[in-house]
Design brief:
By secondary structure, the chain is mainly β. The protein is built from no helices and 22 strands.
Length: 237
């Protein structure tokens, strides 16, 4: 087993007024040669956008982009004609493929929106762009990880063009769950959204991250009430 730990306070930080963002991996003006990516996981941004503000229309290509709102409402528009609002309890995925433009803005005029912006390198380049979002409220489980993203169109959650699986878990203090790696050669990056946990002997708190690879499974124990996002991705691309 190999592991790397990224404590919350070591992340890159950019406060633009309208946007307050923490970067687990190198992004925009934050560059750390030792923190470019974790396998196919390229970007993990913890964003807060002020009321009525947001990211104007901009382009992307050949990237799988996932948004997970943590609080508030995020309005999405893109060059494919999609107009949607995603909120806490939803997951959004967008395959940029051959190229798209899109905007993401805080729908609310009276409070900030908090969300995770995640980029994953695709398995196949130049695919037809696509957009999807789902509500995960009905599939959420207590004290057990539940799948919100996979490579399979007919599986639970949204899907993307990569051999990657995302799971969320809401745990009360003292509960434990084991996560088994889906594909040989993949690793898992765990991001602690809230609370405190112990993962394979490592104590982690809110917004800490740990990447683990060369293992068949990981064990997560809640030492306080906690919410955890697991991102299984290929370690080679």
């Amino acid at each position: 087993m190999n592991k790397i730990i990224h404590k919350a306070e070591t992340r890159g930080h950019a406060n633009h007024g309208w946007l307050n963002s923490y970067h687990t991996f190198s992004f925009a003006n934050y560059y750390n040669p030792e923190r470019i990516n974790f396998g196919a996981l390229r970007v993990l941004n913890d964003d807060r956008v002020q009321a009525g503000m947001g990211f104007g229309t901009h382009p992307h290509d050949n990237m799988e982009i996932i948004s997970i709102p943590l609080d508030g409402d995020l309005e999405h528009k893109d060059s494919m004609g999609n107009v949607a609002v995603i909120k806490e309890g939803d997951v959004q995925v967008m395959s940029a493929g051959t190229g798209i433009t899109h905007s993401e803005k805080n729908k609310n005029k009276d409070k900030e929106v908090k969300f995770l912006q995640i980029w994953v390198f695709p398995k196949t380049k130049n695919v037809t762009p696509r957009y999807d979002q789902i509500s995960i409220r009905e599939i959420a489980k207590d004290n057990k990880f539940y799948q919100v993203l996979s490579p399979n169109k007919n599986d639970q959650g949204v899907w993307l063009h990569q051999d990657a699986w995302f799971h969320l878990g809401n745990f009360t203090k003292g509960n434990t769950d084991e996560y088994k790696i889906k594909k040989n050669g993949n690793g898992v990056y765990a991001f602690i959204l809230n609370g405190e946990v112990e993962i394979d002997g490592e104590k982690l708190s809110k917004r800490d991250g740990i990447g683990i690879w060369d293992t068949e499974s990981i064990s997560v124990k809640a030492t306080e009430n906690a919410r955890v996002l697991l991102m299984e991705v290929p370690m080679t691309m």
